Amino acid sequence: PAPVTMPAAVAPAAGAPAERLADLQRFHGAVRAVAFAGAGVLVTGGQDGTVTLWNLANPHRPAQLATITYGARLNQEWVRDLAVSADGTRLAVVGDARRVAVWDITDPTSPEELSGDRGHSHYVHAVALSADGNLLASGGQDKVVALWDPRGRGPGSLLGRMQEHRKTVRALAFSPDGRRLASGGDDRRVLLWDVADPARPTRLAVLDAHRGAVAAVAFLPSGGWPASGGSDRTVRLWDVSAPANPRPAAELTGHRKDVTALAASPDGRTLATADAEGRLLLWDVADPARPAVTTTLSGGHGAVHRLGFSRDGALLAAACARHTTVLWRVAPATAPAAG
Fold first, then answer.
1. Considering the entire predicted model, what is its pTM?
2. Of 18, 42, 12, which is closest to residue 319 (Cα–Cα)?
3. Residues 166-186: pLDDT tens digits?
């Protein structure tokens, strides 16, 4: 497909205003991960080994609800990634402690650790939860993608392991129905897996996605198309309706540095992309074969490590390298997507 190039200057699209609400700066290191949990709760994780839950009742002044210790700060055990179940009750955290840890955050002021299993032999870089919260995936520097029962504890919670990546796994994402998993990493590939039976995962496709490492993957909720972004400064959308013959459906260009983060809005109409210089683009992907930039944003705090949309699609958060999480209002609130 012909590349989609960002115009030199882009204003917010009508009906989709972008308002910078807050810069959260109470961190002792780079912020590596961010996700929304239920209504009005933001979760952040950083290089200081801690996870913080924030109350967004007043999004201009987020208030700290609780702090979780994941890794040993003296050992510099970073939080690398986190994920929250669709119902907002479960939080999964991974990082340099090599643990895949799950907390119950039904009461966000008093998180309760449910499990902290070790299924990797090196740092864990990525984690994802299926929409129904019944399956967890983790991947890391040992080149392994592991599948877990997040409700379990101990060795029995490890359901399956996939070992077909040639280098570090950097990114994971479940399809909206939870039956497929996309994994990307330093081998420049995205692997698409059938995980309907997590004890017997099957590789469906290999996407020779980028000319450099793959740092981020996401699925568009509408249609289930995967998106990938990497160090070649490009984002690609993939038509995998015929998994044996996947094809790139669109190429999104316009970033000047490595693409480091992706997030799809719950309604599937917007894809947020970010890069190593802290620049964010919002794309209209209602027709994923013809994406168009609607808005450009600047975090101003260095590389963006992760992005997350709120469940109503109104808020976007960016985890940034310079000890900051930036929060925007990017659209009017809509009803959360089912699931």
1. 0.90
2. 42
3. 999 999 999 999 999 999 999
